[in-house]
Design a protein that fits this description.
The protein is an all-alpha fold. Among the domains are: 11-44, no CATH class; 63-125, no CATH class. The protein is 51% helix and 0% strand. It has seven helices and no strands. The chain has helices at residues 5-8, 13-21, 25-44, 63-76, 83-96, 101-106, 115-122. The longest helix has 20 residues, at 25-44. This is Core-binding (CB) domain-containing protein.
């Protein structure tokens, strides 16, 4: 009967009749122009008309998206951390990794580029916790700055 007759075998007679009605010539003629336009557009856009991709290629994650990821990971780990405390921890770790101060300040926003601001808010002592993160691993090395 049909190529996919096994798939509709368990269907009721009414369901099968409804499916067959969808293949009437009048129904096919109704949808034919729209289908032809769709196929033509897909071909011009190099898209499969049978299996179109709804999204384009992946884009780089924005700072907001990354901040959301960090917040959710920390929250799921049971860490109650504000963006300011995370920023302070990352910057302080850079300082502890002996990064030059001018390099640390170059990544900061304009309002945070002063040595005074860095010393007051970001130059924090970090007490290592046993078995949490190895001293040989730089936290800064795990992230690339977004420009």
């Amino acid at each position: 009967m049909w190529r996919w007759s096994e798939a509709v075998e368990p269907w009721s007679t009414q369901q099968k009749a409804l499916l067959m009605a969808g293949w009437r010539k009048s129904t096919l003629n109704t949808y034919k122009p729209a289908w032809e336009r769709w196929v033509k557009w897909c071909q011009s856009s190099d898209i499969s008309p049978i299996n179109p991709v709804a999204r384009g290629p992946a884009k780089a994650a924005s700072r907001t998206v990354i901040a959301g990821w960090v917040k959710s990971v920390l929250s799921n780990a049971g860490v109650d951390a504000t963006p300011g405390s995370v920023r302070s921890a990352v910057v302080s770790r850079g300082w502890l990794d002996s990064e030059p101060l001018d390099k640390i300040l170059s990544r900061a926003k304009k309002s945070r580029k002063s040595v005074k601001t860095f010393s007051k808010f970001y130059k924090k002592e970090i007490r290592p916790l046993p078995n949490v993160i190895s001293d040989s691993v730089s936290l800064r090395a795990l992230f690339k700055p977004v420009r």
